[in-house]
């Protein structure tokens, strides 16, 4: 891999993102028998009915998708769901051992990896990148990314929107330092955007659709052809090392992949459940659904190379401290459990 060395320090609120992930390691368990140990029979097989899988989720994420596809009703193990506002806090919980697995976008694993967190990406899918956008108010004089110079831009730092913003700026000949970054989680960013406390907002669906329909936003640019549009399921290595929990994870990632494929041909049903699960309007979720096509993707060198390029870009921009090998935080051990068509 080609790296882009830099000696610049971590910048702004991103320090907190990485440091918090590191600090959460102190919350991890200190060994002891797995809570799912009783699920392993004397012959070494696993009784999934005795397994509890703790899963991190985001708004309109895995739980809603599995429910829409009818895949929750037949799960042979218990799922304990924990909700998070975005990928970075979800991965902090993963590192701390508070969850076994969770779904995130293409960027949070890089920040977790840079912090040497306990994380292993076990499956992935491409969603396209039309829902990864930078939006501006409908009446804004901003007509190009170049016009963002000196402007206030909201973004959840360490999220997939963070990389899209960085990449869009680079393509327009700007750097991260050319804008006034406002580090805000989606709910706070929506309020700031609606009240015109920021000039633009880098975000992902369903927030892109919500901004369009409820805050009268205009899409300035989307990530098509620029970002990889990937989502991942990331697990705690301790969960993967536990025979019973690992067996549940194999089943879980298979169900997620099948539900993703199902969503491509059942858009009305998926949008309806997504709306019910999140409280968003049917119009918002339907627009978000229509912007994506899910394709389960095996973890391979193409995936890790794409993620490596992203990590290198963050390092070059001074937003991550030093170069590192992304592939060490990905595994192809679960590829056989994930259908790709």
How does this model look, in words?
The protein is an alpha/beta fold and 341 residues long. It folds into two domains: 14-127 and 229-337, D-Maltodextrin-Binding Protein, domain 2, CATH 3.40.190.10; 133-222, D-Maltodextrin-Binding Protein, domain 2 (3-Layer(aba) Sandwich). Helix content is 37%, strand content 17%. It contains twelve helices and eleven strands. It has helices at residues 14-23, 62-68, 87-95, 108-114, 160-171, 186-194, 207-214, 237-241, 243-265, 267-278, 282-290, 301-316; strands spanning 52-58, 78-84, 101-105, 120-126, 133-137, 152-155, 180-183, 200-203, 217-222, 230-235, 295-297. Strands 2-1-3-10-4-11 form a six-stranded mixed β-sheet. Strand 1, helix 2 and strand 2 (78-84) form a beta-alpha-beta unit. Helix 1 runs parallel beside helix 3 and helix 2 crosses helix 10. It is globular. The two termini are 30 Å apart. Mean pLDDT is 89; it is low at 1-32.
List keywords for this structure.
341 residues; alpha/beta; D-Maltodextrin-Binding Protein, domain 2; six-stranded mixed β-sheet; five-stranded mixed β-sheet; 12 helices; 11 strands; globular; disordered N terminus
Spatial gap, N to C terminus: 30 Å
Low-confidence stretches: 1-32
- The proportion of residues forming helix, as a percent range, comes to 25-40%
- What would you call the structural class? alpha/beta
Query: What's the number of structural domains?
Result: 2
Please compute the radius of gyration using only Cα atoms: 20 Å
* Multimerization state: single chain
Principal-axis shape: globular
**Which CATH-level-2 architecture of the largest domain?**
3-Layer(aba) Sandwich
């Amino acid at each position: 891999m080609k790296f882009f060395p830099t000696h610049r320090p971590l910048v702004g609120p991103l320090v907190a993102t990485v440091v918090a992930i590191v600090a959460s390691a102190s919350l991890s368990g200190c060994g002891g028998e797995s809570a799912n140990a009783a699920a392993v029979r004397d012959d070494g097989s696993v009784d999934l009915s005795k397994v509890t899988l703790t899963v991190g989720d985001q708004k309109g994420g895995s739980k809603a998708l599995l429910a829409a596809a009818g895949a929750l009703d037949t799960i042979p193990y218990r799922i304990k769901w924990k909700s998070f506002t975005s990928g970075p806090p979800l991965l902090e919980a993963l590192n701390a051992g508070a969850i076994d697995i969770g779904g995130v976008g293409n960027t949070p694993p890089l920040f977790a990896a840079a912090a040497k967190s306990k994380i292993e990406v076990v499956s992935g899918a491409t969603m396209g990148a039309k829902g990864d956008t930078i939006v501006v108010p409908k009446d804004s004089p901003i007509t190009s990314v170049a016009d963002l110079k000196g402007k206030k831009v909201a973004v959840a730092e360490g999220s997939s929107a963070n990389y899209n913003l960085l990449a869009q700026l680079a393509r327009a000949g700007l750097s991260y330092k050319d804008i006034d970054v406002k580090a805000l989680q989606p709910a706070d960013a929506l309020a700031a955007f609606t009240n015109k406390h920021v000039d633009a907002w880098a975000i992902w669906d369903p927030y892109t659709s919500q901004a369009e329909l409820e805050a009268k936003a205009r899409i300035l640019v989307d990530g098509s052809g620029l970002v990889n549009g990937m989502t991942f399921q990331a697990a705690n290595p301790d969960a993967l090392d536990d025979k019973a929990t690992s067996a549940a994870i194999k089943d879980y990632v298979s169900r997620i992949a099948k539900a993703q494929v199902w969503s491509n041909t059942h858009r009305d049903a998926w949008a309806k459940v997504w709306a019910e699960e999140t409280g968003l309007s049917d119009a918002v979720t339907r627009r978000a659904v229509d912007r994506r096509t899910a394709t389960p993707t095996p973890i391979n060198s193409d995936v890790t190379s794409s993620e490596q390029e992203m990590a290198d870009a963050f390092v070059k921009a001074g937003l991550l401290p030093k170069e590192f090998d992304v592939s060490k935080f990905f595994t192809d051990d679960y590829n056989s459990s994930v259908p790709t068509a």
